[in-house]
Amino acid sequence: MDKNIIKAIEETFNLNVIGDQYFNWGEQHWLQLAPTSPNTQPTVSVAIVYPGKEHASHVHSGYEEIIIGLEGEIVHWCDEREIRLHKGTLGYISDGSRHRIVNSTPSTASFLSIVYPTIPKALGEIYTVEDIELKEVAKIINLDIIAEQFAETVRMAVTLVDVSGDLLTMPRKLPEFCMICMHEKCGDCILSSPENIKIQPEQKLYHCKFGVASIQCPIIVNRRVLGYLGCGYGLMYTGLNQEAPEMFNVFSGQNHIMAQNAYINLPLINRNHMNSVADTLRLVSASLVQLMINSIKEKRLSSYQVSLSEERQKQAQLSNSLNQARLKFLESQVNPHFLFNTLNIIAQQAEMDGASTLASLTYALSNLLRLSLGKTDSLVTIREELNCIEDYLFIQKNRFPDKFDVDIQVEQDILDVKAPFMIIMVLVENAILHGFTDILWRGKLIVRGYKHQQTAVLEVIDNGCGIAPEVVDAIRDFPKSEYDPAALKGIGLKNIYMRLRHYYGDAFEFVIERLPEKGTKARICLPL
Question: Is the N end or the C end of the chain the one with fewer CB atoms within 10 Å?
Answer without folding.
Answer: C
